[in-house]
Design a protein that fits this description.
5-stranded antiparallel sheet; alpha+beta; 6-stranded mixed sheet
Length: 391
C-alpha cells in the first residue's frame, strides 16, 4: 500500500526502513460519517477476511477523528505487511461494522502536499511510522482501479499491482446491497402493517368473543393462581403443624420430667420433715435429760455439800475441818514451832479434805469454789478470793 508522509520537517525517502506492523506507533481515522450523536468506535486487526481478530483496540467515545497510540501488538504478528482493519461503531448497545480496510504496506513513500485535515476525504485512514504520518494515495488508488477495469480480461497481472490499497465498506456494490436491504425492510414493514391492520379488523369484529375468551382465560389464571397459593399455604401449614407437634412433644417430655422432679422433691421434703421432727424430739429429750441431770446434780450437791465443803465456822469466827481448828488467814506466823503445836495434824486434815473435795468435783463436773493446789504430803494452799490475803 502506498502512503504519503506528513511532517513539519522536509520529507526524505527512507528506502532502507522496512514498513511492517511493528513499525506502526499510532493510527487514526479522519472525518467519520457517523449519523449518531452518542457512539463509541474501536477497530480490530485480522490476518485476512476469514480469520478472527488478533488485536482489539480500546473504545473511543463520540470522536469522528479518533486516534490510537501505544499499540501493544502480539509478538507473533509484528512482522506482518498485509492485514485487514475493521472499524466498528457501537450505539444504543448495538454494534455494527462501519468500515473495512485492506492494508498493504510497501517501501514507497510519496510526499503529500496536503496540509489541512479538513480537505481530506471522509473516512480516511492514517498510520504513523518512523515519525511520519502516512495516508493512502488517492491518485494511485484511482490509477490502480482504472488498470483493473481496463485489464479485466488479462490473466497474468502482477498480484501486487492488482491490489486495491484501501477497500472501503461503502463502495458501489455495498451501497446497492444496502439499498436492497432497505427496500426489503420497507416491504417487510409494509407487510407487517397490513397484517396488523387485518388483525385489528379481526379483533374489532370479534371483540365480544375475544373479551369472553380473555375473561375465561383470566378466570383460569386466577383459579390456577389460587390453587398454587392453596398448595403453598397447605404445605406451609403442614410444616407449622409438624413443628408445633414437635414442640408439644418436647414440652410434654419436659413436663413429665418436671413432675418426676417434683415428686422427688416432695419425697425429700417428707424425709426432711421427718428428720426435723426426730431432731425436735431429740432436742426435747436432751432438754429433759439436761434438766434431770441438773436436778440430780443439785440433789447430789445438797446431799454431799457438807462433805464437799467440810469447813465449819463457829460463833467465835473460828474455822475448823473435822473438828480441827484452822488458823486465821491474816496470821503469817502460823507455821512457826512456837505458836503452832498441831501443825502436822492440820496439814493432814487439810490434805485429806482437799483430796476428797477434788475427787468429788471431778466426778460431778462441778467447779471448785476455792481453787486448791494439792501436791501430796506437801503443804496445801487454799485460795479464798473473798479475803484480803490469799495465803
Amino acid at each position: 500500500m502506498s502512503f504519503t508522509g506528513i511532517k513539519k520537517s522536509p520529507l526524505v525517502s527512507l528506502p532502507f526502513l522496512k514498513k511492517r506492523l511493528r513499525s506502526i506507533t499510532a493510527l487514526g481515522l479522519r472525518n467519520l460519517t457517523v449519523k449518531e450523536f452518542n457512539f463509541t468506535v474501536h477497530f480490530t486487526l485480522h490476518r485476512n477476511e476469514k480469520t478472527v481478530a488478533f488485536y482489539t483496540s480500546e473504545s473511543v467515545e463520540n470522536q469522528r477523528s479518533p486516534e490510537w497510540s501505544y499499540l501493544k501488538l502480539p509478538t507473533s504478528i509484528q512482522c506482518l505487511q498485509d492485514f485487514v482493519m475493521r472499524i466498528w461503531i457501537t450505539s444504543s448497545e448495538n454494534c455494527r461494522l462501519f468500515l473495512e480496510y485492506d492494508v498493504h504496506l510497501d517501501d514507497s513513500l510519496i510526499p503529500d502536499e496536503q496540509k489541512d485535515d479538513s480537505q481530506r476525504s471522509n473516512n480516511s485512514l492514517w498510520l504513523e511510522m518512523f515519525g511520519y504520518q502516512f495516508t493512502h494515495n488517492e491518485s494511485l488508488l484511482d490509477n490502480q482501479t482504472d488498470v483493473q477495469l481496463n485489464e479485466t480480461g488479462s490473466t497474468i497481472i502482477d498480484k501486487k499491482s492488482k491490489r486495491i490499497n484501501l477497500v472501503k465498506s461503502y463502495n458501489k456494490l455495498s451501497i446497492l446491497r444496502m439499498i436492497n436491504v432497505i427496500d426489503a425492510i420497507r416491504a417487510e414493514n409494509r407487510s407487517s402493517a397490513q397484517c396488523l391492520e387485518r388483525l385489528q379488523t379481526f379483533v374489532d369484529a370479534h371483540e365480544d368473543y375475544l373479551s369472553k375468551i380473555k375473561e375465561r382465560e383470566s378466570r383460569h389464571l386466577r383459579v390456577e393462581n389460587l390453587r398454587q397459593y392453596l398448595q403453598s399455604q397447605t404445605l406451609l401449614y403442614e410444616q407449622r403443624f409438624n413443628a408445633n407437634q414437635q414442640k408439644q412433644k418436647i414440652i410434654q417430655e419436659r413436663k413429665n420430667q418436671l413432675e418426676q422432679n417434683l415428686l422427688q422433691l416432695l419425697r425429700k421434703q417428707e424425709e426432711l420433715n421427718s428428720y426435723i421432727n426426730h431432731l425436735n424430739q431429740s432436742k426435747c429429750l436432751l432438754h429433759d435429760l439436761i434438766q434431770l441431770i441438773t436436778y440430780r446434780q443439785k440433789d447430789i450437791i445438797n446431799e454431799i455439800y457438807r462433805y464437799v465443803y467440810p469447813i465449819v465456822n463457829d460463833k467465835n469466827d473460828e474455822y475448823s475441818i473435822g473438828n480441827i481448828k484452822l488458823p486465821h488467814a491474816e496470821d503469817k506466823i502460823y507455821q512457826t514451832s512456837f505458836t503452832r503445836e498441831r501443825e502436822n495434824e492440820i496439814e493432814a486434815a487439810v490434805g485429806y479434805c482437799a483430796h476428797f473435795v477434788f475427787i468429788i468435783s471431778q466426778f460431778i463436773q462441778l467447779p471448785l469454789r476455792f481453787p486448791i493446789e494439792f501436791y501430796g504430803t506437801s503443804p496445801i494452799k487454799i485460795y479464798d478470793n473473798a479475803l484480803q490475803s490469799s495465803e
